[in-house]
Amino acid sequence: MNFYELQYKYPLQNLINQTRACDTTASMLTGIHYQFGILLGREILGMQPSIYKTKQLSHNTLQDLPYYDESGFAIIGILRAGLYIAEGIREVFPNAQYFLVKAPQELESIVFKKVIIADSVINTGKTLRNFLAIIQAEEYYIATSVIYEASIKEIFKQYPSVHIFSIRSSTNSYIGQGSNDTGNRLFNIKS
């Protein structure tokens, strides 16, 4: 199973707790999601093979330096709540194609080499499975702040070669409503 949970690799508990606290402002939550996107992007980049580029160094010599191959990537941010995670990933993949969409049908005519699908919370996994069913790519990477554990199994049943990167997983299935919804919290929408 290609599931990577970052909370056990990095000291993220303070940030994770802030995402769950109701006194966290929209601006603070936005910044945390952006930071999560950078971490998730770095993990995805770290899985890529190394390539060498000849660079001039500060002491006027040329040297072949190893870089992770970031070519061929597209980032798809699922609107609304996946925006800031996608923006953080974009920081790590500055040359990637970049799409912000609500529905996968907006991209069904495009064939991608490697695609990163970013969303803030994956609960039932229905939205993500809709994207995976329509988006055409050779390799799929999922990036999220939290994913419901039962959804991980369901996604891998249908799409066993996908790579899922999450800040944390949850044993609880919770669908936010009103001011508890992550998208509403990110955009300071009170309902």
TrEMBL record:
Q: Which InterPro entries match?
A: PRTase-like (IPR029057), PRTase_dom (IPR000836)
- Ranges of residues in domain Phosphoribosyltransferase: 12-188
Pfam families reported for this sequence: UPRTase (PF14681)
Kindly provide the name given to this protein in its UniProt entry: Phosphoribosyltransferase domain-containing protein
User: What organism is this sequence from?
Assistant: Helicobacter cinaedi CCUG 18818 = ATCC BAA-847
